[in-house]
Amino acid sequence: INAEYGWKKMQDEAPFTGNNMQAEDENSTSSEPEEVNILPGPSILNMRKVIPNSLTLMAVAVGLSGIPLALNSEWGWAIFCILAAGVLDGLDGPVARALNGTSRFGAELDSLCDYINFGVSPAIVLYLWGLRTAGIYGWATCLLYVICMGCRLARFNAGVDFNASKVTRNFFMGVPAPAGAMLVIFPMVVERLRESWEKEHGKQSLVTFWENFGDFGLKLNDIFFVWEVSKVMVYMLVVSFLLVSRIPTFSAKMLNRAFFSGLSLGARSVFAAVVLGFAAGLILTPWRTLCLLNVIYVITFPISYFSENFNN
User: Fold this and answer.
1) Of 2, 101, 248, 297, which sits 20 to 30 A from 29 (CA to CA)?
2) Helices (DSSP H) in the chain: which residue ranges?
3) 56 in Cβ contact with 92 (< 8 Å)
4) pTM (global) more than 0.70
5) Which of 4-13, 99-108, 126-135, 174-183 has the lowest mean pLDDT?
6) Which of 69, 176, 187 has the alpha carbon at shortest distance from 124?
7) How far apart are CA 279 and CA 83, in angstroms?
8) Looking at 75-89, 145-159, 241-255, which range is the least confident one?
9) DSSP reduced 3-state for 171
10) What does the pLDDT read at residue 80?
């Protein structure tokens, strides 16, 4: 601090007396550098910055709350905690820009909280849910996912995903952190969907439903609704690879003012109806809606890949 701001060392200063203070007041043209307040205090409590940063901290509190819920086998609530953290994470940025309260501190805090919410918390919840039965291999799979999430966030913070092209700014390189968390908990969501289906229609009703489609239906049932530990581990490895890959995926930054200004009133109405439909689905039938959102998002991978190459 002394080197940076040019403050005098304590041993070079004269003992403090009233005469010294009076002399300093009289000699107001002194070349002594002005003291800079670098410690936190009321001067930095700007509400424009406090509000978005509070949303970020609220997100990490909710995301971490999924771990004790998982310890109590409250798997549904643990999933909702991770999803709620994603919703809050999506709000802090727009709120900061709307209030003109963006800051380097907020950006760094958001990145650290993303690592906890979408890297550490989902990995621990999945380990407690089923991967702990695989012993050290299950734990190693969770560690690899957390490491890939950290590399993905570090790459994004370093700006590696972006260049001077306006086209590529509409895409992420690899799956972003919130989407990665949504994908990695997909097996847990499917299990919740299967349990709710069997509770409503009976235990064998799901298999009976797929039997109507013959052998193809039974294969689909095994693929989507039967999640063994080894299958979950392989799936988690695939998601980990997608996090650090260079596969272009659609970015929400495409949905900006220029995008909506180019749409007709009817197209805007359809878009709003779709968004409201998914919001209502998350409230009324959350597990079916979450499964549908995961499937739709994965389907967009080849679309975004060919779209990015075509635009380039």
Assistant:
1) 2
2) 2-5, 18-26, 47-71, 75-98, 104-115, 121-129, 136-157, 177-184, 186-201, 205-211, 214-225, 229-244, 257-261, 265-284, 286-311
3) yes
4) yes
5) 4-13
6) 69
7) 13
8) 241-255
9) strand
10) 94
